[in-house]
Structures
1.
Amino acid sequence: MKILGIETSCDETAASIVENGRTVLSSVISTQIDIHHQYGGVVPELASRNHIEAIVPVVNEAFDNAGLNKNQIDGVSVTQGPGLVGALLVGFTFAKSFAYAQKLPFIGVNHLEGHISSVFLENNSPEFPYVALLVSGGHTSIYYVKSHTEYELMGQTRDDAVGEAYDKVSKMVGYGYPGGKVIDDLAKKGDKKKIKFPRSYLEKNGFDFSFSGLKTSVNRYLKLNENYMEYISDIAAGFQESVIEVLSYKILNAAKIKGCNDIAIVGGVAANSRLREKVTNDAKKYGINVYIPSIEYCGDNAAMIASIGYLYLKKGLTTELNGDVYSRPKVVSGKKHK
Ligand code: KG4
Ligand code: ZN
């Protein structure tokens, strides 16, 4: 079964064709980073306008790269939410029209479920049940994943998302949006032990996160040390270590408490080199296996949307053509872990 996936929830216009939820036949991502960089963050109005320009060429390229024509797919899957409403509407409306015109099943999916599914685009993938750390620009959460479509939310951030903290720190030191990769690269050249920023564990056995205190602490440090640019890589490394230590501790603790041997790390921040290295090393001590998608499937992409759409379609679950998008996180359901 070949599914066309479409993603337009934020600042990437993406289309992909995936076979049987796992084999990526094509994955095209057109990013708007250069457009938003000058404004220090994503401007929703500009994002929608650029999705409108990009969507048709991006979908055509996905078909060309897969060597398929429009009659050779079995369903259309698209991000329904959460995200920017105007941006979501472009992909959602396009996908609906395409499915209607081609008489194909239509599946509106949750962007977060897409990220969780991204580990299944790789050859080696976790065994159920496993725990997943979802780290992106808008979300930081831990899920207990029971099956492809059943999740239990164990904890989430009470304030900023991890990616947001990276982006804000980058902005503070004048490197702008998006800041994750910039801070990651700077940190590689720095000494992570030179400046110790606070670690915010909240309750040590709980799974909620908080990053706004750390952000404030970095801001205060910069105000007190005028010459900070002389050792900016040490600041980046110190900030990063404070984030990564907490993430690694909490996801491994979640695996221990749930008795899982497998963990997954997904979302844009899963591209972070220190996060990949530290969790992999720490997990070895407990015999836990770590699954992280390749870099191209960490950030927003449409292959993950096609993959989760396939799993819903296989269960016979489709979306009405009069369905609507939603901006705030919902679903990725289950009870909150106590
Ligand atoms: O998943 P994603 O592409 O979009 C959302 O759904 O939010 O994640 C984007 C976020 C941005 O905040 C970006 O700064 C962060 O992921 N990011 C990174 C790295 N690459 C991207 N954060 C830390 N280290 C990286 N290497
Ligand atoms: Zn995302």
2.
Amino acid sequence: MRYIFGNWKMYLNEEESVRLAREVGELSVAPGFSCAVFPNTLSFLPVRDVLRNSSFSVGAQNVSWVPRGAYTGATSAELFRESGAAYALVGHSERRYIFGEDDSAVRKKIEACIDVGLVPVVCVGEEKHDRDNGKAEYRVKKQLMKVFEGLSIGTQSVIVAYEPIWAIGTGDACSDTEAARMIGVIKEYVAPYHSGEIPVLYGGSVDAQNVHTYLSHGIIDGVLIGKASTDVTIFEKIVTEHT
Ligand code: PEP
């Protein structure tokens, strides 16, 4: 299975999200591909309803690890799962760096997703200075170690997204060969944690022009797309020409 995921972040309001979902829902996805969009929490339910009979799943951009209770402002993995989410982004760099989410929170969110059968899409990636100092692999392995060490995944699906921070939203996409190399490193590192294979996606300034370069590498199991997924003309090209 290969994956094309669209993270709509907080780019769209509810009306815009529903409109985009209607257009996206018309797209056909080739067998062997699994596609999903991640609307904001407010738009999750209407987008889910629009996409109910389409080829697209709906995911959560963020989840809380506590299931229910007195947790003001939180929406748990359990609530998202009950409401039809198939996936949840966990540890996206914007959550880590803007909202101060640390590895222990990321770990708890992964466990919460696994507990309720929501597939966590665990985002990891190095900063520019790590890369410039030859520490990209070290940084990513450290993130993986902190969230995977001792984790009981069983047969539950987990996805990893390699998203170098310097490539997110900058137009400075990681080259496909380097993304493939890093994904090889990640796959080798996470292999002992799962009986099957953990799919690893690339994310960071993917667009209609460069997407084929990533998908031409068998080792890259798909792409996680931010900005370009909110433009239906671009997203349509990506989905229809590459699945
Ligand atoms: C992302 O935020 O996950 C992402 C990949 O964003 P963009 O495609 O806009 O770089």
